[in-house]
Write a structure and sequence with these properties.
With about 400 residues, the protein is of the alpha/beta class. About 35% of the residues lie in helices and about 25% in strands. It contains 12 helices and 19 strands. The protein has a 7-stranded mixed sheet. A 4-stranded parallel sheet has the order 9-2-1-13, with helices on one face. The longest helix is centred in the first third of the chain and has 29 residues.
Length: about 400
């Protein structure tokens, strides 16, 4: 019989995304009594694999590549022989032309032409010379991209896409976002990669690791290990109140089947959205902190999956779509990730539409979204006909991206 853990050895974890599950996985191994509460019907959070009949698709192009041996070993031990290597081809669709991304010299020359490429290099040299005489820290996303790549490449490869993603001018978004997404990536590394085949920047990798049956297998394996270790994962359980006293959380209230129940533990770990955590604190936080919390905003996403009676429509793992006339910002072809995700001879295309929960796009019915995406994709790319579509599914993902608005640190 398993000895019941003392309260000091009990842990409640809020949220069963990868962060919450990984914490539970390690704590169970260390002998703690763990209970994880998740408001959704499945685990995985932002990195789920949705299953519809015989089709599986990921909620965005999630994969992993790391030079950290500890992290890589941890992941390989968790997934075992489920791990496969995927050749990566990511492209930008801009003004009806495809460019490799990260930017490659050959692809850029072919798409832009010699004159435009020369202009891009001159722009960057001018920015670099200016920066030597006047050192400035970029404030906005626009400033940051221009400093890294020059104005020509910014206008071609970053401006439209970023403004589609955020739904606002790049002058309203902090340059800190660039540090999160393009660390070590600039025009100098582009040239070094072309001349010396450098792979020092993670963005340049030609392949990555991936679970054969979808990224959701990471969450599944973590949950299985938590349960086998005696832990609990309780789904459809939403955190409503978080009681605290003297800088210590004392109780959490969980809503389950329209009933409310209070739970306590020696330790409580939160992996839910920070804004939700602060809003749930009881007693409520100060007026000033509540105002700050309201400024912790997110960009939400609609993911429209089309199940296609064809396979390998493109060579791409995913494509960034810059055109403002096209509603989706990116699409992924799942058959280029793993043959196990779709029945033989078929594939799934996953289209991502950035929006805000409750706005006109978010409020559209599923059938409207499917028609919008289908009509646009057929007209713009011409790779399928309506008769090739076997079915569809719409997945709604709130709080997909935290918004790094200008001044977010001081709010």
């Amino acid at each position: 019989m398993k000895r019941k853990a003392k309260k000091s050895q009990s842990v409640i974890i809020l949220g069963a995304g990868l962060a919450g599950l990984a914490a539970g996985y390690e704590l169970v191994k260390a002998g703690y009594e763990v209970t994880i509460f998740e408001k959704e019907t499945e685990v995985g959070g932002l990195a789920r694999t949705v299953k519809v009949n015989n089709f599986k698709f990921d909620t965005g192009p999630h994969r992993w590549y790391t030079k950290n041996d500890m992290v890589n070993t941890w992941m390989l031990k968790l997934l075992g022989d489920e791990v496969i290597k995927i050749p990566r081809l990511t492209r930008i669709y801009f003004d009806k032309k495809f460019f490799e991304y990260p930017i490659r010299i050959k692809s850029t020359l072919q798409g832009m032409g010699l004159v435009k490429t020369a202009q891009a290099l001159i722009d960057y040299i001018g920015i670099s010379i200016y920066a030597k005489f006047k050192k400035t820290t970029p404030l906005t996303l626009e400033d940051g991209y221009i400093q890294k790549f020059g104005k020509t490449l910014y206008n071609m490869f970053f401006k439209r896409y970023s403004e589609k993603l955020w739904g606002t001018s790049n002058r309203n978004i902090s340059a800190d976002w660039i540090g999160q997404r393009t660390r070590g990536f600039n025009i100098v590394t582009v040239i070094k990669e072309a001349l010396f085949q450098s792979r020092s920047v993670v963005s340049f990798v030609d392949e990555f690791s991936y679970p054969r049956n979808g990224i959701g297998r990471i969450a599944d394996k973590l949950m299985d290990s938590v349960l086998k270790g005696g832990g609990k994962v309780v789904l459809q359980s939403e955190v409503t109140d978080i009681a605290h006293s003297e800088d210590e959380i004392t109780l959490v209230t969980i809503k389950q089947n329209n009933k409310f129940k209070k739970y306590s533990a020696g330790q409580i770990i939160s992996s839910i959205a920070l804004s939700d955590f602060i809003a749930g604190l009881r007693p409520k936080v100060s007026t000033s902190l509540a105002a700050t919390n309201k400024n912790l905003t997110y960009r939400d996403e609609l993911q429209v999956a089309l199940f296609i009676n064809k396979t390998k429509l493109t060579p791409d793992t995913w494509v960034y779509v810059h055109s403002l006339d096209v509603p989706f910002i990116r699409y992924t072809e799942m058959d280029n990730w793993s043959d196990s995700l779709s029945p033989r001879g078929t594939t799934t295309l996953v289209f991502e539409i950035a929006c805000n929960e409750g706005d006109l796009m978010w409020s559209k019915k599923d059938a409207e979204l499917v028609k919008l995406v289908t009509d646009t994709y057929i007209k713009e790319f011409g790779l399928i006909n309506q008769s090739d579509i076997l079915g569809s599914y719409v997945h709604r993902m709130p709080k997909e991206y935290p918004v790094y608005h200008v001044g977010y640190k001081s709010d």
